[in-house]
Amino acid sequence: MLTAMSCGKVTALLAAALLFTGCQSEDGPFPSRELKLIVQASPGGLSDSVSRIMASLSEAELGVPIVCENKPGASGALAFSYVTRRLPDGYTIGHAPVEIAMVRSLGYADVGPEDMDLICLVQKSPPVLVVRSDAPWKSFDEFLSAARERPGELIMANSGTGSIWHFNTLLMEKYADFRVTHVPYSGSSGSLASLLGGHVDAVISGAGEAVANVQAGRLRPLIVLAEDRSQLYPDVPTTHERGYPFGAPAWGGFFGPKGIPQDVRIRLQNAFRKAYDNPEWKKLCKDRGMEPVFLDSEEFHEFAMEQSEFFGKEIPELLTMSR
Fold first, then answer.
1. What is the per-residue pLDDT across 240-280, written as a single tens digit (0 to 9) for each?
2. 16-25, 114-123, 148-157: range with lowest mean pLDDT
3. Disulfide: which of 14, 44, 97, 128 matches 189 by Cβ 3.0-4.6 Å?
4. In which region does residue 80 sit, left (phi positive, over 0), alpha (psi from -120 to 50) or beta (all else)?
């Protein structure tokens, strides 16, 4: 017969065993359930395309679905703040665009690369200035002349106040010495639609975001804001060629809340690396004008911190200039 004390010990052991079994069943080896990938931009733009194709290509390696959810707003600050407040278990991650290095300097949110666990970088994208094909400007010099002759009259759409393409428009104003009127949208798809509809005069977007309309003859690229020419627009000059040393590329990768266990972070990094090596990803990069670049977690963190320092110096000056 069991004594009262031994009965108590057996009951405690059973309870502990049940608790341990329950934890194993719920958590299990990572991942044991679907992941959520938060995208800071609207559907249809470059960030959305990068996130969805990389998620799709990573699912086979992880063995679970990755569900993308768009949370646009405040140059990505809403999405970044949302992700950084989630449990750091690897089940909620985010797309990490260049804006993660910008939003603190913009005053949108007290969040930056140092508040995240960066997983990997997968691409960079040069900006391009485009106008409608029926616009009177056939070159960047003609566009500059018009902008200088009519300060503030030309209207330029962007993918959101404080976004990388808005930042490039401000850089262009600074280095080329002219002023335009800025109209923000919640993503590049909206700004390009506004240009196509005749509501604005020009747009700076990702080279790949504009390429379909350029190839269809609806838009005309005037200049690529970079040192080297874009593979999508080999006949279009760059700002550096024309003597204007400006242009900040977009880039994209993935991040999670601070404190993700190292083995989980490495598991995610390896899954994205597998997706990065997939020919389908390389094809998307070629089609959308992106430069495939892979940085692992540590390399990405170092790069993002350098970018944060750069924008921390440039943004206050540009915002003061634009007032």
1. 999 999 999 999 999 999 999 999 999 999 999 999 999 99
2. 16-25
3. 44
4. alpha
Nearest to 169 by CA among 74, 160, 145: 160
Residue that has been written with the tokens 């940085």 in this structure: 295
Residue 49 to residue 148: CA distance in whole angstroms:
36
The CATH homologous superfamily to which domain 127-224 belongs is Periplasmic binding protein-like II (3.40.190.10)
Tokens 């990065």: give the residue: 276
Query: Do the domains spanning 35-125+250-322 and 127-224 agree at the CATH topology level?
Result: yes
Angle at 144 between CA 139 and CA 149, to 5 degrees: 130
Q: Buried b vs exposed e over 243-256: b needs ≥16 C-beta within 10 Å?
A: ebebbbbbbbbbbb
pLDDT in tens, 128-158: 999 999 999 999 999 999 999 999 999 999 9
146-to-41, 135, 141, 192, 230 alpha-carbon distances in Å: 32, 12, 9, 21, 25
35-125+250-322, which class in CATH? alpha beta
Rounded CA Rg of the chain: 24
For 262, residues 6+ apart whose C-beta sits below 8 A from its C-beta are none
* Claim: this prediction has a pTM higher than 0.85: no
* Interatomic CA distance for residues 47 and 188, integer angstroms: 10
Whether pLDDT at 10 is above 50: no
Which residue, 313, 312, 273, is CA-closest to 296? Answer: 273
